[in-house]
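Pipeline run #58 for the internal structure catalog. This entry was flagged by the ingest filter as a single-chain record with no existing model, so it goes straight to prediction. Upstream metadata was stripped on purpose; only the residue string is passed forward. Reviewer on rotation: M.T. Logging verbosity set to normal.
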Amino acid sequence: MTTVVVADDQELVRSGLQLVLEARGCEVVGTAGDGREAVDVVRRTTPDVVLMDIRMPVLDGIAATRELVAAEVPSKVLVLTTYDLDRYVYEALEAGAVGFLLKATPPDRLVEGIRTVCAGESLLAPNLTRRLIEEYLRHPPPSDDPPQRLGELTERERQVLVLMAHGLSNDDIAAELVVAQATVKTHVNRVLAKLGVTTRVQAVVTAYECGLVRPGG
């Protein structure tokens, strides 16, 4: 059974999400009303997934995500947001969240998203997360560091990274490159390790920052 922690400063949202998730086969092992409490609950329960609101008191969702990633907690963070284009969402992805969901997401799609990230994928739907990344990487010049890290990738690993940036899942990448899904997973893990990141989203951000993938391209 997939285990989840729900972090949101509104009690009604927390209780509503708990009812929705438990009715669909997920186990809510904890809830939190602020970011500090979220970090404590997650470290204590190590759920599969954390549904993390961004704007919370004491410690916001971005800072809480950074703490969990820095502590190498294995739980995957899915950001909850009201709007699909939000600077704070982008910062949360940079911090190590594996993707984001709108609070208006239908219950079945919410559970599907949770199961997607549990399977090792990230929520990089081209119509949402990719557009968000492009919005905030359209103007800044590439930094010097990402290209140096990209130089460590093999040609095939670069291909995989580009396809990840285009929003393809592991299954889609396997079909595109005509290789086994296990091979794709190996390439993805090597890309993350060589780039020094922990999530697919952070790898995609690096691809945009260094110019390997262009906004709108």
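catalog note: The domain at 3-123 is CATH 3.40.50.2300 (Rossmann fold).
catalog note: The chain has a mean pLDDT of 84.
status: ready for reviewer M.T.
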